[in-house]
Design goal:
Helix content is 33%, strand content 20%. The protein is of the alpha+beta class. It has one domain (3-189).
């Protein structure tokens, strides 16, 4: 294979990964909406927005986003101001501190321990990525097991999160069993 073909194939593989990631997030939207949850930020996909000609490949605001994030609140509870939980799904494409990380899907439930309603303006797209890979003392692994942490020093928000290699998700049923069904169950029973 010539260098030109290698570059074209590499670019096409990245584009396919991004497109398939969008499809997974759209399917998660559909499954969660059937259970009464709505995306907090509408059609927005959270990621790092900063792009500069002077950026380093190791900084967080890189051209190719580290993650694609969606946050959800329960439609009814959010509307009446009683929701103290936010559901998250991330597709983590890479992490600058973890060079051997494979693209993966993460899910988590953030619960305000003060039982305050979670306001849209307080939710950060980066929360799940931070809780999994950057929170002090966290030893997160992509093994499908649930991990608990309180990642923010300034409050007592608790997070339960888990993740799997993106290649483990081969069907809508895989997405439901590994991510959306456990998110819904955890929302109602934690």
């Amino acid at each position: 294979m010539e260098n030109k073909e290698i570059i074209v194939n590499s670019l096409n593989n990245v584009l396919d990964l991004i497109n398939n990631s969008f499809l997974l997030l759209k399917e998660a939207d559909r499954l969660l909406s059937e259970a009464g949850f709505a995306p907090v930020f509408g059609n927005t996909i959270g990621c790092e927005p900063s792009k500069s000609i002077h950026q380093s490949l190791n900084q967080f605001g890189n051209f190719l986003p580290q993650y694609l994030s969606r946050a959800y609140c329960h439609s009814e509870n959010s509307a009446n101001g009683t929701d103290n939980k936010v559901l998250f799904i991330n597709i983590q494409l890479y992490h600058s501190n973890l060079p051997s990380l494979t693209p993966s899907m993460l899910a988590g439930v953030f619960t305000s321990q003060q039982h305050e309603s979670v306001a849209k303006t307080n939710i950060g797209h980066w929360w799940l990525k931070y809780a999994a890979y950057e929170a002090p003392g966290m030893r997160f692994k992509l093994d499908g097991q649930q991990y608990r942490t309180k990642p923010f020093e300034e409050d007592s928000t608790e997070v339960v999160l888990w993740g799997k290699d993106i290649l483990a998700i081969n069907s809508v049923e895989d997405l439901k069993q590994a991510f959306t069904d456990p998110l819904i169950e955890m929302y109602y029973h934690s």
